[in-house]
Write a structure and sequence with these properties.
Length: about 600
């Protein structure tokens, strides 16, 4: 029996999610702005340092990637697609884009589109190196060579080059040794005329070794204070409970930009201490989710919405405009231009939706429906943009405790005196979980004893990590059932190994709590013999797994799942038999 969050079963998708691995370290060291007694570093000799051009430090910047589907590996990017994107960016006043790699399909085509159409866009080119603990020399040599060729061929467009992306802090694509990365930086720098750096999290740059600082012309730091609210709790006060509810969203977004400035300041202070006051800093990535992904990108209720994203971007641009020539960053590259569905749980950072509609953060730049080169500037109207509509932390609202002796989650036969879960429906998790039909007659004449001839049938077609079905609805106060039990009738023939039963509640801190029990045949009377078995689990068993459960606010009163990491099955297990469930209820 084991407790875990639903999202813990999901595989990593991108570098931003991997910041979880370093959350504790970053939280502990955020305020350590100085070098702490480390040996000062010298950096590229000032007389040989390549300055960032005026165009690099005056243009509005954004990260750009063209992918529009769920399968990046097979998607074909065309110049027509890139031209549409560039026309939208030009229409929005974006004059500087960051590319992550030097591939032919993305980087070369983008540069050719800009050149051939005389577009007013400059490029911060990337050389995407492969790490994973090894130098990957063959692939990395080829990528470095492509970056050199593009920087030289398109020297009027490429203003700077970044070698490597988030390779020195996060495990997602970590290179084996900083010296290896420094070698690639030097190789590229020696072959081009533009200033060169590497992009990484502020947690690296605020104590960067001379191995790296000696090779770069400027610092490109990444800062994601929104993600810190998930993976580095306590770094800054996003909840802003002291603020009145009506002004709490504004207080949160003010605190967000203040925390961003603190992280930038940690890097600036370290560089100054290390004898590198001349080394300029750009923000290579920062942003705010427009949608709560609820998964690897971070479960972000009360935070992620188009209105909140607009408030953050507005503050970023104001900071950039005021401090660009002073103590602040020379340029801020917002992450990112367009949504990218292939990122799954780390999607929805875009200034534009995947169908190229302008979100709140940039709608004011152009009237809705106006021409933009080969594209049309269309406003996304799926959500309001005003600050009053922005999300903010809300304290837990506890409803009246259910007084009935039975709380029914699912049954098609009524029971006298019962309370029935209000609202909601069944939902599946797992990328390809399917075959779920509620209130479907069983294929045989049998049905759960004491209930009608209807059940929920599940034919698992799971994602690589497993599957799950949950019952959601209005939050219910089931505090009076703490000494009772959860009952579900389950019927399956030969389902292999263990199955999971879980529940989920809200909590005072609004982070939520979940508890799962892994059941083998015989546990709590569960069986896989093809007959109906009455599974009865004491509520106390869930509370023992996770004492943070708050029965005053039960969000998911029943979850049935099989997440392979917790039931012991191999990843990508398929061919699972059908499961029927019926007559699910809590009793005192």
């Amino acid at each position: 029996m084991k407790h875990t969050l639903l999202s813990d079963a999901l595989p990593a998708r991108t570098g931003r999610w991997m910041r979880a691995a370093l959350a504790a370290t970053l939280a502990a060291t955020l305020v350590a702005c100085g070098g702490g007694g480390s040996t000062p570093v010298t950096g590229v000799e000032v007389s040989k340092q390549r300055p960032l051009s005026a165009e690099f430090t005056t243009r509005k910047a954004v990260n750009y990637s063209p992918f529009r589907t769920f399968n990046r590996d097979t998607e074909v990017i065309t110049k027509a697609m890139i031209k549409q994107d560039m026309d939208l960016l030009v229409a929005g006043g974006f004059g500087l884009i960051r590319l992550f790699d030097s591939s032919d399909m993305v980087a070369r085509q983008t540069l050719e589109v800009i050149r051939d159409n005389s577009l007013d866009i400059k490029v911060y080119l990337g050389a995407y190196l492969q790490g994973y603990g090894n130098s990957k020399s063959t692939a990395n040599d080829a990528e470095a060579a492509r970056a050199i060729a593009l920087a030289n061929q398109f020297s009027a467009i490429v203003l700077a080059v970044s070698v490597g992306n988030e390779m020195l802090v996060f495990d997602f694509n970590k290179i084996d040794n900083p010296a290896t990365l420094a070698g690639y930086i030097t190789r590229v720098r020696n072959a081009i005329n533009q200033p060169v750096t590497t992009d990484d999290n502020y947690g690296f740059w605020k104590s960067a070794p001379h191995t790296i600082t000696d090779t770069v012309d400027f610092v490109a730091l990444h800062t994601y204070v929104e993600q810190d609210t998930v993976f580095a709790e306590g770094v800054w006060d996003w909840q802003q409970i002291a603020a009145a509810p009506a002004s709490r969203a504004t207080a949160m977004m003010d605190a967000a930009i203040a925390a961003t400035k603190v992280q930038y300041g940690a890097v600036r202070s370290y560089l100054d201490f290390a004898g590198l006051p001349h080394l300029p800093i750009v923000v290579g990535e920062t942003g705010w989710h427009a949608v709560n992904t609820g998964g690897g990108g971070g479960n972000l209720p009360f935070r992620a919405s188009p209105a909140n994203q607009k408030m953050f971007v507005d503050r970023l641009r104001a900071w950039e405009a005021l401090d660009r020539t002073g103590a602040g960053p020379r340029t801020v590259f917002v992450f990112e231009a367009f949504d990218e569905p292939w990122k799954l749980d780390d999607n929805f950072w875009g200034m534009f939706t995947v169908d190229r509609k302008a979100r709140c953060a940039i709608q004011a730049l152009r009237p809705d429906g106006t021409a933009a080169g080969s594209a049309t500037w269309v406003h996304d109207k799926s959500s309001p943009c005003d600050a009053a509509s922005a999300l903010s932390f809300q304290t837990l609202d506890v409803g009246t405790a259910v007084a009935a002796s039975r709380f029914t989650v699912f049954a098609d036969a009524a029971t006298a005196g019962e309370a029935v879960q209000a609202g909601g429906d069944w939902a599946a998790f797992g990328k390809q979980t399917g075959g779920v039909t509620a209130d479907r007659p069983l294929s045989s004449a049998s049905f759960a004893p004491g209930d009608g001839p209807q059940s929920l049938e599940i034919t698992p077609t799971p994602a690589d990590y497993g599957w799950g079905i949950l019952r959601f609805g209005t939050a219910s106060n089931l505090s009076a059932f703490a000494g009772g039990s959860l009952t579900a009738w389950i019927k399956t023939a030969g389902y292999p190994g263990k199955i999971e039963i879980g529940i989920s509640t809200d909590t005072e801190d609004r982070k939520g709590a979940e508890a799962f029990l892994q059941l083998a045949p015989g546990d709590f009377s569960y069986c896989n013999t093809g007959a109906w078995c009455k599974v009865t689990i004491p509520v106390a068993a869930f509370l023992a797994v996770n004492p943070r459960l708050d029965l005053r606010a039960v969000l998911l009163p029943f979850v049935i799942a099989d997440r392979y990491a917790f039931t012991g099955k191999p990843l990508n297990t398929t061919g699972l038999p059908r499961i029927a469930i019926d007559n699910i209820y809590w009793s005192k």
